[in-house]
Amino acid sequence: MNKSCNWTLVFLYPIVASGFGIPDVGTAIATNIHSVIHYDILPAQFVSLSSSSLSHLSSNVIQHFTTTGISSSSTTTATSTDAVSNVNLLTLYKNILAQHPLPTKMITGGTLAVCGDAIAQSRTTDEYDKRRALSFAGFDCVYRAVQHFSFPVIVQHCQGQYLGALVAATPGIAALIKALDLENVNYYYGAVEQTLASQLGIVPFFYYPVFYTVTAFVQGLDAEGAVQRAKDTFVPLMKRNLLFWIPVQFIQFCYIDESLQIPFLSVAGLMWTFIISLFAGNAKASLKNKTDDEVCNRNAGATVKKSACKKEKAIVLR
User: Fold this and answer.
1) 77 in Cβ contact with 27 (< 8 Å)
2) pTM of this prediction?
3) Closest Cα to residue 54, out of 31, 72, 77, 36?
4) What average pLDDT values come out for the chain (318 residues) when binned by 10 residues?
5) 3-state SS string for the chain
6) Is 120 exposed, middle or buried (0-12, 13-18, 19+ CB in 10 A)?
7) Do 212 and 229 touch, CB atoms closer than 8 A?
8) CB atoms closer than 10 angstroms to residue 225
9) CA dihedral (8, 13, 18, 24) positive or negative
10) Distance CA 201, CA 204 (A)
11) Cα 199 to chain center, whole Å?
């Protein structure tokens, strides 16, 4: 059993117990864990517990739990709340993120993408499409990996020098910026440049090609259908993309700590996945609707043509 599993087992004691509908047991276990280890172990040290240490800790928890029993519900709940408050989940997540940055970012993005697609699918009467959910999870994992490697390059090369030169060459805008008296204005120029580099560079030339390819492949769409789907939905999606992501990514580059930028985008991506899933989530359905529309148009055209022929014939007979 590895170190992460050791930590996970101990941390999940109260969650599992409460999940089975026994909240008093779950909270009591949390309380006893708190009393045994006193929370003197930092998260990083806690993760490094060996199997033997974990076994010893588990036996102490169980022995302490069986000897003290479960106290009254109100007292246990209050104590457990204090215990849980001492566990900083954000700190734990950041520790895992620091130790395993790439897989943590990919799993975070993929999980939230599935959630966003599930919300979108819940708005329809169709049965839950697992392949569609898998396509969004796979695509998001790939894209988070691309962001992991591309963002440092973008930040390194976009430090506000281009936008600063453009503003300096435009007297009216330069005077306006000077009147605003912003501190470290090049920092904000850099955030704008980084946002535009991502949205006008990576998104149209990588994000959407990969999105259409991965989702079409997983959902069983052929190459012709994938290309047709891209033609039908790319421009409307790109418009929505710019409206949604330019403000979000400016906040990301300007105010969010570098290590948390991709998790931040994954959370924002939960809403975006809902949007994109509603608009272009079901590849086969969108292609079928397109085909049905074409058939209807052809039939309507044939009906009009036939009607016109009948009118011409009637005029000739007169």
Assistant:
1) yes
2) 0.60
3) 36
4) 42 40 42 42 43 49 48 50 62 92 95 90 88 90 94 94 92 86 89 96 93 85 88 91 95 93 92 78 53 46 44 35
5) CCHHHHHHHHHHHHHHHHHCCCHHHHHHHHHHHHHHHCCCCCHHHHHCCCHHHHHHHHHHHHHHHHHHCCCCHHHHHHHHHHHHHCCCHHHHHHHHHHHCHHHHHHHHHHHHHHHHHHHHHCCCCCCCCHHHHHHHHHHHHHHHHHHHHHHHHHHHHCCCHHHHHHHHCCHHHHHHHHHHCCCCHHHHHHHHHHHHHHHHHHHHHHHHHHHHHHHHHHCCCCHHHHHHHHHHHHHHHHHHHHHHHHHHHHHHHHHCCHHHHHHHHHHHHHHHHHHHHHHHCCHHHHHHHHHHHHHHHHHHHHHHHHHHHHHHHHHHHC
6) buried
7) yes
8) 19
9) negative
10) 6
11) 17
> Quick one: pLDDT at residue 288?
54
Tokens (6 digits) for 194? 């980084």
Structure-token pair, residue 231: 């033609």
pLDDT in tens, 157-183: 999 999 999 999 988 888 888 888 888
* Sequence-ordered list of residues with C-beta below 8 angstroms from that of 254, at least 6 positions apart, any chain: 187, 188, 191
Judged on CB neighbours under 10 Å (0-12, 13-18, 19+), 294 is exposed
CA–CA gap between residue 106 and residue 93 (Å, rounded)? 14
**Please, are residues 85 and 36 in contact by the beta-carbon 8 Å criterion?**
no
Place of tokens 């697992």: 130
Please give the pLDDT value at position 70. 45
**Burial (Cβ within 10 Å: 0-12, 13-18, ≥19) of residue 143:** buried
In this structure, how many other beta carbons lie within 10 angstroms of the beta carbon of residue 132?
24
CB neighbour list of residue 33: distance below 8 Å, 6 or more residues apart: 10, 13, 14, 61, 83
* pLDDT of amino acid 87: 59
pLDDT at 238 (0 to 100): 92
Residue 183 is predicted with a pLDDT of 83
